[in-house]
Amino acid sequence: MQLPPKVTDRAFERLSEIGAAQQGKALRIAVEGGGCSGFQYEIALDAPADDDLVLEGQGERVVVDSVSLPFLSNAVIDFTEELIGARFVIENPNATSSCGCGTSFSM
């Protein structure tokens, strides 16, 4: 059974800090063909579309389109701050391997 991705409090907090909802935007998580491992994540601020799954928390929204959703079943969308920089990350149990870049994976 496919479950929708989960978004951590830390990710919603970061969206609030950058004022995404105030700009009428949501964090879009999409999966596209390409990248070093076969698929890659596209992460951007975007306006929600009619067929998006909308995940809401703390007044902020994360959206996933219907095509990308099966690839993100049970995934966790988080925000991390490391020495190399701060970024949104996706922990995806469906990925069989991933690339060091952190945005590409295979299934």
Automatic annotation (TrEMBL):
PROSITE patterns for the chain: HESB (PS01152)
Pfam families reported in the protein's UniProt record: Fe-S_biosyn (PF01521)
Coiled coil: none
Domain Core: 6-102
Domain of life: Bacteria
SUPFAM superfamilies tied to this protein: HesB-like domain (SSF89360)
InterPro entries reported for this sequence: ATAP (IPR016092), ATAP_core_dom (IPR000361), FeS_cluster_insertion_CS (IPR017870), HesB-like_dom_sf (IPR035903)
PANTHER family, A to Z: IRON-SULFUR CLUSTER ASSEMBLY 2 HOMOLOG, MITOCHONDRIAL (PTHR43011:SF1)
Protein name: Iron-sulfur cluster assembly accessory protein
Native source species: Arenibacterium halophilum
